[in-house]
Amino acid sequence: MKNEQTLVNKKSTFQLHLYFPFILAIILMSVLTIYSMVYMQENTLHKSKASTTEQFKRFLDNKIDKEAAAISEFIRFIQNREDIARLFEIGDKQSLYEAIEGIYKDLHQNIELTHMYFIKPEGKVLLRVHDHKRDLDTVKRMTFLKAKEKQSLFYGIEFGVKKNYTLRVVTPWVIDGRVIGYLELGKEIDKIIDEYAELLNIQVYLAVKKGLYSNAPEFVKENLKQNVQTRDHYIVYQTFDVPDQMESILNGTIVKEEIRFDERDYSVSKEILSDVSDNELGYFIFLDDVTLEHDIIFGSVKVFTAILIIAEIMLVVFGFKLINRKEKDIYVLTSELNTQKEELGLFNVKLQKLFDFQKNIVILTDGKRLMMANQAMYDYFGLDDLEEFLSHYSCICERFIENDNFFHLGKVPEGESWAETIQGLSAEKRIVAMLDDELSTHVFSIALNQFDESDYVISFTDISSTMLEQVKLLRKVTHDKLTGALNREFLENNIIEIIEEAKQKKLGVILADIDYFKRVNDTYGHNRGDEVLKQFVMTIKTAIRHEDYLVRWGGEEFIILMRVDSVESLKKATEHICLTIENDDYEEVGSITSSFGVTIYLEGEGIYESIERADKALYQAKENGRNQVRII
Question: Do domains 55-191 and 358-470 have the same CATH topology?
Answer without folding.
Answer: yes
